[in-house]
Amino acid sequence: MSLNIHSHLQGISAFVHAVETGSFTAAAARMGVSKSATGKSVARLEERLGIRLLDRTTRSLNLTAEGQAYYWSCLKVLEELNAAETLLASQRRVVSGTLRINLPISFGRLCVMPVLKEVADGNPDLDLDISFADRQVDLVEEGIDLVVRLGDPGNHASLIGRRIGTQRSIICAAPAYLDRHGRPASVEEFVNHDCLAFAKDGRPLPWAVCGPGGTVRRFVIQPRHTISHGEALRDAAVNGLGLAYLSTWLAADDLRGGRLEAVPIFTPAEDVPITALWPRSRDLAPKVRVVVDALIEAFKPTHLIGS
Hints:
The chain has helices at residues 2-21, 24-31, 35-49, 65-92, 105-122, 139-142, 175-181, 230-238, 248-256, 286-299, and strands at residues 54-56, 61-63, 97-103, 126-132, 146-150, 159-167, 169-173, 195-200, 203-204, 207-210, 216-219, 225-227, 243-247, 261-262, 272-279, 304-305. By secondary structure, it is of the alpha/beta class. Helix 1 (2-21) packs across helix 2. InterPro entries: LysR-type_TF_proteobact-type, LysR_HTH_N, LysR_subst-bd, WH-like_DNA-bd_sf, WH_DNA-bd_sf.
């Protein structure tokens, strides 16, 4: 029976790796076995199931309709095995294994990666699998262990999270641009300026400004230029293309260096939450906890959410 289970798992593993890599050659390299062994494992799996999972050509592998359905079932099986291993590791309190983490593109590269480097240096048995996206990924469906989000952390029905900090943004521009166009003192003056908008999901995000009595107004600008990458937006402002609403962590070096100048329009001291999230269905494994703790230490936490 154990040999049969072992054979089944070999076939499932070979099949999943072949789908993810697009070829038996790449799947074999990932698994550390020969190409022929990988192909034979998948062939035996298809024979046992009595269905064709992959359409093979000389250049590619393509999932059949049955193969697509079986692929998702296999991912769930492997996820359950990973959860079992995670539970055992949690009981041992050992920081080990692979942590799949998804980060916002600019914030992740500039602010989170230095923290992850320190965590990796201090935990030699921990492997990091890091992806970057400014969209909201589905942790459960995409097999992500931990995600860091800026702004609304989303629906917490299947997630637990910790607010690890708060982002503040300011309105700024290159001094040369402000010398040419003037320094706006109110939002009404934006109509006389070239405004640079950050786009998320194809839509420009509003700018938050403080009104009388400390009230916060979300101002929808009419941008001249729309840019969907934070560092590219900062670069556009530095190069004099117009006013930009930039997070302080992104603009800090250029403000200190005189390449950007903040305009005299007040913005909220705490604008956007920064949150770490992980699937509710899993215990907080040591590999997740060590990263969450490091982020809390780095970004000054506030309170637990989603629990």
